[in-house]
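FIELD: query
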Amino acid sequence: MSSFGHAIPCATLDMQETDIENFVVWHTREHLPERLDVQGFLRGRRFAREAAEPRYLILYDVTSLAILTQPDYIERLNDPTPWTRATLPTFQNGHRSAYQVIARNGQAEGACVMMMQLMPPNPERVKREIELWVMDEGISHPGIVSIAFAIPDKGSSSLDTEESRQSRNRSTDEWVILVEAISETKLLDFVQAEMTQPRCESWGLSTGDLSKIFRHQVRVGQE
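FIELD: result
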């Protein structure tokens, strides 16, 4: 398993243009550092794309799902700062889930990430198939630097806290595959080679998800 941890809290969201400047400064200067102060949080990153929904993708890496239900973390979620209280209600179409990492290959970080969400019709077969794919042929394409496959955990994804009520974020049951690359072009080449129509149908993947490519904006991590 990668040194980046065994679980991934993941959020997507939109907001009005007039709220973006405040969000970017808040998330960069307060929220990311605050989360990384929690024991067990290893890395936090924000990605974005223009003229598309959702606009933002936020990824954290934590040592285990247990971190997300520990008392000191829940205490923080129930006692947001004044800036957080003012910013969370500006979130639109927010989704947040905590994922258990099933397979991960690659140590590098990409300039871009593609987020694929899927609901397989045959979960057990597809789960094993994706695990093998991630650890073998999936990572072999030029420009692809890492792939993570993860499944949401309902318990740690649906906590009722002050922050969840303020943001109105919803959880999702969909599995996720995160593919990182050195450029958007390399991700599109990867899609062309790997995400064939039969594979998408077998994995329960919408072809619309193959356009969810976000560019990296900021990172905070444990050194």
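FIELD: remark
The radius of gyration is 17 Å.
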